[in-house]
């Protein structure tokens, strides 16, 4: 599994807006420059682009290890092959190495 940067950025945009603006129920657009945000009555919600951009950066920093781990893990087929040929403990060591090389921010 390889992370989709464009899709991930769009998801972060929407998540950032939802975290900053609790009245947002409809978010349309892929960038902070073209996004339209509406409340439950269909009224446009005014957003501060700099605040949204800062929140996106905060969210990306907090989750960057996830993308790094996804890109570093062997494929499922390779993991199963590793378990078959080298045993469960060898597989765990491989996975632990990925985790150690890409720690969560709190670790």
Please provide a written account of the structure.
This protein is mainly alpha-helical and 107 residues long. The chain is 61% helix and 6% strand. It is built from four helices and two strands, in the order αββααα. The protein has helices at residues 5-20, 49-72, 76-86, 88-101; strands at residues 26-28, 36-38. It has a two-stranded antiparallel ribbon. β1 and β2 form a beta hairpin. It is elongated, with a radius of gyration of 19 Å. The model is unreliable at 1-7 (pLDDT under 50).
Comma- or semicolon-separated keywords:
2 strands, 107 residues, two-stranded antiparallel ribbon, mainly alpha, single chain, 61% helix
């Amino acid at each position: 599994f390889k992370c989709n940067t464009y899709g991930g950025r769009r998801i972060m945009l929407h998540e950032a807006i939802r975290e900053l603006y609790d009245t947002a129920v409809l978010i349309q657009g892929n960038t902070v420059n073209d996004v339209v945000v509406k409340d439950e009555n269909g009224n446009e919600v005014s957003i501060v682009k700099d605040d949204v951009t800062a929140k996106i950066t905060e969210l990306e920093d907090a989750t960057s290890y996830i993308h790094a781990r996804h890109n570093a893990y062997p494929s499922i087929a390779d993991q199963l092959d590793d378990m078959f040929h080298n045993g469960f403990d060898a597989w765990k060591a491989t996975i632990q190495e990925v985790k150690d090389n890409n720690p969560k921010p709190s670790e």
